[in-house]
Amino acid sequence: MSTGVVRVRARASVERVWEALTNADELRVWLAELAEVDVRQGVFEFWGRFTPEGERGRQKLLEVGERSVKFSWFLHGKDYTVELSVGTRDGETVVAASQSPYPAWGEGIEDETHAGVVQTFWPLVLGNLVEHVEGRPVFGLCDFSTPEQRFEVDIAAPAAAVIDALTDVEKFQRWFGARASIEPFVGGRWAMGSFEEEPNPGKVVALDESRFAIEFPDGMVSSWELAESGGRTHLTFVQSGFDLGTPPYGSWMGWLSGFVDMRRMLEIADWKPMWHSMEMPGLPEGALVLE
Predict the structure, then answer these.
(1) Which residues make beta-bridge pairs with 230?
(2) 149-243: CATH superfamily
(3) What angle do CA 79, 84, 90 make, to 5 degrees?
(4) Which residue among 136, 191, 253, 260 is the one 20 to 30 A from 130 at the CA level?
(5) Nearest of 122, 156, 109 to residue 262 by alpha carbon
(6) Start and end of every Activator of Hsp90 ATPase homologue 1/2-like C-terminal domain (predicted)?
(7) Angle formed by the axes of helices 249-267 and 159-167, to 10°?
């Protein structure tokens, strides 16, 4: 059976992260709108509008280890097995989410409402977990109750630094954790991976000190509006041009999970990417940029 694993590093103790993984009040901050947890009684549930197919009763606790919880999750008509764990690697606290079965590389782009959600849900919520256990405000969650894809956040950095983080390919790859190709001018190309590997790249349709936008071949547009005040930037991110009947939640959460670390890069003086490692069926060599 295929398995995918996402690992993030956190500047917090293993004990602190374990508490956040197993306390319902804390899960309601970084994971879900609603949660109930009692690992001694065999309960680990989360549901609500920030959870795909967010009805209650879809999780069943299977096993509790010293610093791990394993549960089944009935999602998209199939049973998944998920394990959340925390430990140390090379002196760092590392949090991992593994899920089986797991879609192969590329399937998330072809099927954003199912495979894409599986591949991007855990990176986003683990990013929020890192912020939470480090005492920072969580970035945000995906609202599955609406097709609207609009997100606003304040960043403690000037607008020019935010635009630079979005358009400088070296900086982008560090906070996003994946290879990209960017021509930072109106009319320029934009692609994940290389232009040689992507015959139909996106196109930069706006770029100045307060706006950046990319239009993709399928008509979807990703846009960033920036308003600076007192050295801080209010960022509004919008995805539009898609079928409202099948919102692209996969790419939406992919962007949001990356933005968690972009904000960290711009606000933390001794920042190091939170992305530790990732395993995925069919993952091409060199597709990720990890430190």
Answers:
(1) none
(2) START domain (3.30.530.20)
(3) 145
(4) 191
(5) 156
(6) 12-134, 157-245
(7) 130
